[in-house]
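Quick start: load a record and inspect it. Here is DNA replication complex GINS protein PSF1:
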Amino acid sequence: ERNQADVSEAKSGRTDLIFLIRFRHCCLLRNQRCLLAYLYDRLLRIRALRWEYGSVLPNTIQFHMSAEEVEWFNRYKKSLATYMRSVGGEEGLDLTQDVKPPKSLYIEVRCLRDYGEFEIDDGTTVLLKKNSQHFLPRWKCEQLIRQGVLEHILS
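Running the structure step on this input writes:
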């Protein structure tokens, strides 16, 4: 407001205020750039939270977010889900599954309970019985590992 008043006075003939007006304007632009950089950094961190925690954020994290940030997170989550459904064929492709590339495509697993026959993409079937061990493709086993049917054996 003070800058606007000084601009009005400068237009009426007080040229000694021009340097002060420019200085204030540069300060305002600097503060605006700092604020935009801060907000952009927060958005990058919120985007990283989606990849780290999944589609549902813990309440402790959501408590520290503004309503606009929660809305942005939800829009990003929906956009990412739409994209993952559009690639990878009928089932879609879960990009959040392996954030770090796996060391090997096949893993050794132990069956924790009787599951029955399990078909792999090449057409072979494996009988998953309790305490049996198998060497299977990682991406086919991850869902069963999360369900508690298989256990990844680390050598």
